[in-house]
Amino acid sequence: MNAPHSPLASADQNDHHQLKIYFLPNLLTAGNLFCGFVALTKIVEADPASDFYFAQIKLALAYILLACIFDLLDGRVARLGGTDSPFGREFDSLADLVSFGIAPAFLVQRVVLADVFGEYRQISWFIASIYLLCGAFRLARFNVLSTYASGGGKDFLGFPIPSAAGLVASLTLLIIHFHEKEKTLGAWNYLLAVVLIFLSAMMVSTVKYPSFKSLGLRSTSTFMKAIGAALFLGCLLVLRERVLYYVLPAFFTLYLVYGFVRPKLSRAWRREIEEEDELDEAH
């Protein structure tokens, strides 16, 4: 005898047929997840007694920053090709939790907080877990809002977790650059601990940040902006490591501060900075 037909099984089969997994955007998301995993392995392998300790930590930081690039590209590629999907959004959040939640929290706990609290390591674990928990809440809230707002709109509610991880990683990289020969971060440990807690609060805050989703291959620009972008690209090619150490922390810090300054700017200034189109605003 044939087994009775299950409505639940039928629904699952229908959902399976309707599930769309686009190759290129999800491949980039997989690159994001891979970078987060490698960053974690490098942090675990780093031996504080080794002469190459900071070199291993810097490599882990580089992988976190590389994950930021993958995260920036996957969404743009999906929107450019019209391949944005619920699966991609969920997969992206899972990858973000690893690369921008677990990896930075574990990094700061291992390199910074463990030295600050010494034998009271439980406190360092607790503080690092605050960042991870707030990051997870931030991603969950984003997914819910995206479901009801057809993509989440132009603004991010709360500081985006990739930007938070980018700020932590780039700032740590800059501090290590200044103290690499000393094999200790000294008093800078306290600054990184405060930054981590502040970013935890900012991720779950109601401060709005522009998503810059309108920026793409078809975006128009003023003559002066085009020159500025070209000069910035030239600086990247010529200065290389110096740009990596100084420009990245400044960039993420400016984005963080912009959320507070943004409501005070005129509509014209905001449109100029965020590249918003009049047609988009009308909708």
Give a brief rundown of this model.
The protein has 11 helices and 2 strands. The protein has 283 residues and is mostly helical.
Short key terms for the protein model shown above:
single chain, 283 residues, mainly alpha, Four Helix Bundle (Hemerythrin (Met), subunit A), two-stranded antiparallel sheet, 11 helices, 2 strands, globular, disordered C terminus
Write a structural description.
This protein has 283 residues and is an all-alpha fold. The chain has one domain: Up-down Bundle (Four Helix Bundle (Hemerythrin (Met), subunit A)), CATH 1.20.120. It has 11 helices and 2 strands, in the order H-H-H-H-H-E-H-H-E-H-H-H-H. The protein has helices at 7-18, 23-45, 53-80, 86-117, 121-148, 161-179, 188-203, 223-239, 241-261, 267-274, 278-282, and strands at 155-157, 208-210. A two-stranded antiparallel sheet has the order 1-2. The radius of gyration is 21 Å and the shape is globular. It starts with 6 loop residues before the first helix and ends with a helix.
Question: By CATH's scheme, which homologous superfamily applies?
Answer: CDP-alcohol phosphotransferase transmembrane (TM) domain
Q: Supply the number of helical segments.
A: 11
* Strand percent estimate: under 5%
- Give the overall shape: globular
CATH architecture: Up-down Bundle
What topology emerges from the helices and strands here?
Elements: H1 7-18, H2 23-45, H3 53-80, H4 86-117, H5 121-148, E1 155-157, H6 161-179, H7 188-203, E2 208-210, H8 223-239, H9 241-261, H10 267-274, H11 278-282
Antiparallel strand pairs: 1-2
Helix pairs in contact: 2-3, 2-4, 3-4, 3-6, 4-5, 4-6, 4-7, 5-7, 6-7, 6-9
